């Protein structure tokens, strides 16, 4: 069997090059799609690069200018000489079709890139330099990198269509006064402060252990799913069945400890069954891989997007357990790679991504032990890449008499929005957060009763 030829379309390449010689507008259009590396033939790479350089220098792109440019580079004869350059426009029926042919050239380039990466991976497998896990990670990383390279909308865009899109968004919010621009968290005060979870945002929920960050992540995920959203939840510390058990407890408002030791009465068992029935039809998908890579997460979200046509929310609990998928010299750089990947995923799938994170131990040395944004400083680019940073603090964890049953959600960073904080109720038995003004009677029944530090007790509105 003869040697197979990689994917390519010489006719499309000639069509693009010939069209560029006929119209400067074509050069502008195809330069948004192609680079010289996308061409299969080496002579076509050199010709297209010369065309781009002439155009970017403000010089005319015609037969004479291109010929002189190639001659000055010493490659004119190598690319076929004046005769070949002059023949290129003969391949063009209409320059208006140049964009279509440019997309075909790009498509073939993508296929060649995929083949090259796969061939490299196959060679390493045959050489015995990879184990199974490394091979899977390499494959996922290759897919992620190729996907990043395929973005065609990262260049400059004229302001007019952007203004039209902005005005349309403002008008929609004007016509829907009182409606959240983002997804509801289920906590009214938090929604008022932030406008909800916005598409394309990376949202960081950070706290020291046992503050309730996992509970808040799970609660928000269920809230969005119960409202009709498609949600992907990546849980790295517990199995999927434990997550399911926890959201049953949250939904049914049951005593979690009693459930876990099997101490159920008739009412509790009925609550479990009712909650399970309510939750069984929601579009919440759980991945309990203990150390997923960003590429693995992206691949799973891509599958979900293909299945439902959208993904409304991605939750990653927690970021410290993620594997960057490649060797990085420091943990700070690892986290930087991970957060950049999560932010890119939020933009690419046009959905909010929530990532839970642990604050560093320096918080424990502070007098009040109340976290601040500075406690993220040693955590890579978490603060920089995040659009919204929420810090959780429950003072009763350190002093049982200090505001029992209350938690502060500190809005430490909000891109294009105010910072501050809100107080919510936290019912430890249900591992659930509540608005202070909402469900007051139900929350009050589950909260600690009046202590000696009465003036610090929770006051429900």
Automatic annotation (TrEMBL):
Keywords: ATP-binding, DNA replication, DNA-binding, Helicase, Hydrolase, Isomerase, Nucleotide-binding, Primosome. SUPFAM superfamilies: N-terminal domain of DnaB helicase (SSF48024), P-loop containing nucleoside triphosphate hydrolases (SSF52540). PROSITE patterns: RECA_2, SF4_HELICASE. It catalyses: ATP + H2O = ADP + phosphate + H(+). Its EC number is 5.6.2.3. The main replicative DNA helicase, it participates in initiation and elongation during chromosome replication. Travels ahead of the DNA replisome, separating dsDNA into templates for DNA synthesis. A processive ATP-dependent 5'-3' DNA helicase it has DNA-dependent ATPase activity. Belongs to the helicase family. DnaB subfamily. This is Replicative DNA helicase.
């Amino acid at each position: 069997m003869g040697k197979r030829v990689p994917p390519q379309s010489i006719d499309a390449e000639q069509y693009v090059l010939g069209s560029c010689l006929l119209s400067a507008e074509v050069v502008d259009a195809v330069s948004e799609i192609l680079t010289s590396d996308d061409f299969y033939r080496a002579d076509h790479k050199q010709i297209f690069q010369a065309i781009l350089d002439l155009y970017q220098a403000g010089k005319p792109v015609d037969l004479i200018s291109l010929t002189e440019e190639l001659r000055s580079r010493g490659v004119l004869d190598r690319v076929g000489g004046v005769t070949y350059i002059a023949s290129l426009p003969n391949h063009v029926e209409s320059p208006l079709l140049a964009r279509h042919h440019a997309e075909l050239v790009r498509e073939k380039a993508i296929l060649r890139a995929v083949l090259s990466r796969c061939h490299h991976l196959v060679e390493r497998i045959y050489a015995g330099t990879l184990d199974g896990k490394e091979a899977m990670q390499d494959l996922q990383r290759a897919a992620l990198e190729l996907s990043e390279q395929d973005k065609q909308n990262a260049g400059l865009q004229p302001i007019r269509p952007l203004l039209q899109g902005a005005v349309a968004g403002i008008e929609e919010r004007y016509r829907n006064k009182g409606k959240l621009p983002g997804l509801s968290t289920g906590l009214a005060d938090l929604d008022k402060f932030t406008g909800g979870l916005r598409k394309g945002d990376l949202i960081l929920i950070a706290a020291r252990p046992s503050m309730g960050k996992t509970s808040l992540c799970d609660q928000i995920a269920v809230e969005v799913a119960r409202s009709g959203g498609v949600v992907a939840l990546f849980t790295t510390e517990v199995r999927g069945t434990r997550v399911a058990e926890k959201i049953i407890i949250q939904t049914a408002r049951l005593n979690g400890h009693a459930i876990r030791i099997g101490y159920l009465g008739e009412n509790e068992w009925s609550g479990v069954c009712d909650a399970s029935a309510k939750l069984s039809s929601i579009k919440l998908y759980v991945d309990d891989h203990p150390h997923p890579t960003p590429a693995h997460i992206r691949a799973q979200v891509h599958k979900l997007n293909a299945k439902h046509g959208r993904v409304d929310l991605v939750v990653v609990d927690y970021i410290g357990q993620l594997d960057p998928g490649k060797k990085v010299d420091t943990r700070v750089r690892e986290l930087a790679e991970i957060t950049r990947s999560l932010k890119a995923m939020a933009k690419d799938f046009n959905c909010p991504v929530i990532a839970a994170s642990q604050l560093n131990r320096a918080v424990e040395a502070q007098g009040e032990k109340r976290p601040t944004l500075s406690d993220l400083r040693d955590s890579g680019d978490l603060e920089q890449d995040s659009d919204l940073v929420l810090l959780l603090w429950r003072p009763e964890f350190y002093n049982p008499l200090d505001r029992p049953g209350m938690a502060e959600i500190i809005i430490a960073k909000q891109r294009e929005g105010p910072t501050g904080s809100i107080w919510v109720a936290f019912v430890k038995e249900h591992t659930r957060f509540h608005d202070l003004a909402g469900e007051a009677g139900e929350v009050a029944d589950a909260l600690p009763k009046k202590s000696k530090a009465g003036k610090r007790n929770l006051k429900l509105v």
